[in-house]
Amino acid sequence: MVHPSKYRGTIISWSCLISCSLTIFFVLMLVFSVHPNVSQGCQGGCATCSDYNGCLSCKPRLFFVLERIGMKQIGVCLSSCPSGYYGTRYPDINKCAKCKADCDTCFTRNFCTKCKSGFYLYSGKCLEKCPDGLEANNHTMECTSIGKSGRPVSCLAFSQGMGDLRRA
């Protein structure tokens, strides 16, 4: 009997029926319909892969991340990490790791750059309430300092000609 791995990466079509024996054609049709995870070859960025688990390792400079499809997780190789993840580079593998639960985007696990709804960004952390002396900016979702004018410091600009602070 012919092993289906001999035909990986081929498209089962009428051309196979013409070039293969009728028995091989029907065996391949059966294998691919009963086992749809039989490899069609590694996906774009994969260096190595498996039929069931997807990418096992990535080509240089790409990031490895596990993607959930129903109850199954498969490895995928991406040029950058998706939202909610940050990239870590190691000599043997580049991986995407999850940001903290309250963080939408992050630079590292402990340094958030954008918080999820209901949280304010302050010094790389996501807080439900801003610390004393700071004001919650509902437009930028950041904690900002209050200037002498009562306006957040981010709204003040230095007037070079007069040497004092004026609203921008």
UniProtKB/TrEMBL annotation:
Residue span(s) of domain R-spondin Fu-CRD = 44-143
Q: Does the keyword Repeat apply?
A: yes
Task: Tell me, in one coarse class, where this protein mainly resides.
Answer: secreted
Say if the entry is tagged with keyword Glycoprotein: yes
Mention any one GO cellular component term assigned to this protein in its UniProt record.
Answer: extracellular region
Question: Which spans are transmembrane here?
Answer: 12-32
Q: By its UniProt entry, which SMART domains does this protein fall under?
A: FU
Pfam families for the chain: Furin-like_2
Q: Where in the cell is it found?
A: Secreted
Q: Name one GO biological process term.
A: Wnt signaling pathway
Q: Which UniProt keywords apply?
A: Disulfide bond, Glycoprotein, Heparin-binding, Membrane, Repeat, Secreted, Sensory transduction, Signal, Transmembrane, Transmembrane helix, Wnt signaling pathway
One example of the protein's molecular function in GO is:
signaling receptor binding
As for family, the record states:
Belongs to the R-spondin family.
Descriptive protein name: R-spondin Fu-CRD domain-containing protein
